[in-house]
Amino acid sequence: xxxxxxxxxxxxxxxxxxxxxxxxxxxxxx
Length: 30
What we know:
The chain has one helix at residues 2-29. By secondary structure, the chain is mainly alpha-helical.
């Protein structure tokens, strides 16, 4: 069970990081 929670958290963090990178790149290209 702990494995699934850890996996979920790490995937969430990766998604957040990707969203942040996209926002930053859009900001600089605007």
